[in-house]
Specification:
Blueprint lengths: L16 H21 L1 H5 L2 E7 L5 E5 L2 E6 L1 E6 L1 E8 L6 E7 L12 E5 L7 H16 L14 H10 L5 H11 L6 H19 L16 H7 L5 H8 L2 H4 L6 H14 L7 E7 L2 E6 L2 E5 L8 E5 L2 E4 L5 H10 L8 H7 L24 H12 L9 E4 L3 H7 L39 E7 L27 E4 L14 E4 L8 E2 L3 E4 L1
Helix pairs in contact: 3-5, 4-6, 5-6
Length: 516
Amino acid sequence: MSENDQVKLKPLFGIHPGKYLVIFYAMIISLIFFLLFFLPGIIRPGTVYHIEVGVENAAVLVDGIYKGAAPCDVFVRAGEHRLTISRKYFTDIEQDIVSGKRIFASLFVPRKENFNIKLVLSEPDALLESSFTEFANWGMIDTYFDNYQPEPVVGPLFKDLYKSGYNDRVKLSAFLYSAMPFVHNELLYSDFLEGLMWFEAVKSGEGLQENILSQDFAEIPFFQDTASFFENLPFWYYSLISDENRGSNTNWYPAMQEEYGVFLRDFSNDYPSATAAVTVNGMRFIMLSGGQFLMGTDGNTFPYPASTDDFFMMDREVSNDLYRIFLNENPQWRTENIAELIEKGDVNQDYLRDFDQSEGNKPINFISWFAADAFCGWIETKLPAYLSGYTVRLPDEIEWEWAALTESNNGGIFKESGFEGPESAKGRYPNNSGLYDLKGNLWEWCGNWYAPASSLITSRDPLYNESYIGEYPGIEKSVRGGSWANERNISTSTRGSQPPSWCTDFLGFRPVIVKE
């Protein structure tokens, strides 16, 4: 075939090619037009609902089937349906809707309706509590990685509270104060700062002021108010900010550090002395005089002043023999009930593992905080009449460190001692206050919750500082002292923590008796 050859179409059913091609192309165009502009509306008629409910991440369900999280666009087929919008701690919205339809051009211009209604916050306290727990859990993690970063909690929470009309400034302020000791890096601080932005909007009632995100630390009203009684707060801020981001915002730090050094040098430090002793149900308690002292002076934590009143502390860790007596009188804590105790969250599966009653003088281990606390409650029922008005509990960290001030730097049962478990205090010498094994042998449960940055959010007035600030329960309880499995570098101010239900080979306890 040459280049000049031409192909000629033959007539079809007597119709000239020029005519039937026009008809053919018209049919193709009509089909495409039908497929694009009519068929979608015929086979899938319905309405796209744009749903706004004031807060984010509310589940949108149509006839019980999840369709997305508000704010979102949801397609609903034509007809009668049940629309449900649900978010925990808010009142659910349930509404019957009749979805209309559009046949023509619904693929390009679908029928739309807006569904705007505000979810009502029904359980604000529960929302605050659960959000605090989530944030504190992130705060308990020491190190993050590129593929493991904390999710924002405080910012989204306060945004939702603001948009839902919640304005209890007292409770919002209490939440922020409780959350601050868990902020120990820039990522958590950024989330906290966004929450502050919405908090200031609640306080002012004048809407959102995003400039707070770029304000200097010292200019933010919440931090100004907090620093008026927690004078060490600037040290907290300095510890959060990386070197490359400090810039001119921390020019004040060297002068403040020098000034605080003078304060620490001139601080009058007391020391405990044993003033009396009592025996309760076979347990010897030493009465320690109260006083003021510097927490963390050995460099393991930020040093700050603290104080305590007189209190009694058990001279040694609770033994197997004493715990056996407790079990005899409190059968609910026996190991045959461990399934129930685990279900309640009071212990884990290791509770009283390897409990050897033949080694009665050795301190009890594999014991949870809840079990230790129950033991203290039992001992309180044994107090003699002359101790009326006293209570028995686990020591807080201030009391524990105060009692340990007279510990020898070379004392304690640690790893290099060669032991393979806790040892009895029998045959050993106590410290200058008459207390055995505050350092080493077993870590000891403390009564307070643990927060990683709590030492930095402190006052220069020792009477004002506590082991744990805030109104919300934390995640883990503090432990002190180190154990037989640790190196001797554990000091009197070394802090640790464990979930209160944990039971380990390295952890025991000793009660204190304090004036109510």
